[in-house]
Write a structure and sequence with these properties.
Residues 1-41 form the signal peptide. By secondary structure, this protein is an alpha+beta fold. The chain has a single domain (11-178), classed as Crystallins (Gamma-B Crystallin, domain 1, Sandwich). The chain has helices at 11-33, 63-70, and strands at 47-51, 56-60, 77-84, 95-101, 115-117, 131-134, 140-145, 149-152, 175-178. The strands form 2 sheets. Strands 2-1-4-3-6 form a 5-stranded mixed sheet. Strands 5-9-7-8 form a 4-stranded antiparallel sheet. The chain binds calcium ion (2 copies).
């Protein structure tokens, strides 16, 4: 289903502007983002949030605490994707959550690509995701290598065991696209 914002005619323009900014961050500085020296980033903890709008990695002891820390001083953030080290959305061994500032819903079509996380390895997440959950109408496509290169998976909505995706995708992804 196509989701539209009908309340304010200017909304879609603002949304496009936000996407463009986020894309430029991920394309230009996706690896840099995840460097541990980032000024405000709290990187201790197995549950990390990567905020695309602010190009920031925030980690904590639970997914909820990481989301809360990421959202400090911000009216709202939207969670687009969560990757789990474990199958069945298990949180024992860590999660990687993708957020943007504000309210964001992915478009129904798979083109254009709305966001790209170019290097999961920079966050310690290369070859690690074993289940995936998406939100706000987003889906993910996983890639073997960084920069969305190499073999890719199908588009995935929610999948409790990434090995059931064609080709077998548990412990394999090096980057991913969102749309
Ligand atoms: Ca895993
Ligand atoms: Ca889309």
């Amino acid at each position: 289903m196509v989701k539209r914002i009908t309340k304010h005619s200017g909304s879609s323009d603002r949304k496009r502007a936000m996407v463009a900014v986020a894309l430029s961050f991920t394309a230009a500085a996706g690896a840099l983002v995840l460097a541990p020296s980032a000024a405000n980033a709290e990187t201790a903890g197995d549950h990390c949030v990567y905020n695309l709008t602010r190009d920031e990695l925030t980690c904590s002891d639970t997914p909820e605490a990481a989301i809360a820390a990421d959202a400090v001083g911000i009216q709202a953030t939207s969670t687009l994707v969560r990757l789990y080290d474990d199958a069945n959305y298990g949180t024992s061994n860590g999660t990687f959550t993708l957020t943007v500032d504000g309210t964001y819903n992915c478009t129904a079509a798979y083109t254009p690509i709305e966001f790209t996380v170019v290097n999961l390895g920079s966050a310690g997440w290369s070859n690690r995701a074993s289940s995936a959950h998406t939100y706000h109408s987003c889906d993910v496509k996983l890639f073997d290598n960084s920069d969305a290169t190499g073999t890719s998976s199908t588009w995935i909505d929610n999948l409790a065991n990434l090995n059931t995706a064609a080709g077998g995708w548990a412990n394999r992804a090096g980057s991913f696209q969102v749309s």
